[in-house]
Specification:
The protein is mainly alpha-helical. The protein contains six helices and two strands, in the order H-H-H-H-E-E-H-H.
Length: 115
């Protein structure tokens, strides 16, 4: 029997990080105001400090969040580059003219069915 070990790519880490709603909330908070401390991010969520730290670690591993020390505090910043790379690689190519035409045709046919 042949077994395959999965090869984890940067895209996989980004998709995994984005799959969780709590991590998406953290990214939204950083989008609203960058350079937040753990305490600040924790105050916007109903979870323990440790839970927020675990989510931030996954976001950091995916490259979606970068940190910088400022005295005793660790500031968290949004890094939009991995999301843009996902967009360019996986989303943008599906916005081609043919796909748009099919979506328009589908909408037109569904409208006729309702009539």
């Amino acid at each position: 029997m042949v077994t395959y070990s999965p090869i984890v790519t940067d895209d996989d880490l980004v998709f995994k990080a984005l799959a969780d709603p709590t991590r998406r909330i953290l990214l939204d908070l950083l989008f609203q105001r960058d350079g937040r401390t753990l305490k600040d991010l924790e105050s916007g969520l109903e979870m323990t400090r440790f839970g927020v730290m675990k989510h931030l670690k996954i976001l950091e591993d995916a490259g979606l969040v970068v940190t910088r020390r400022s005295g005793r505090e660790k500031l968290h910043f949004l890094n939009p580059v991995p999301i843009r790379m996902i967009h360019d690689r996986w989303i943008d190519k599906y916005r081609e003219r043919e796909v748009s035409a099919l979506i328009a045709l589908k909408a037109e046919l569904e409208e006729k069915d309702r009539s």
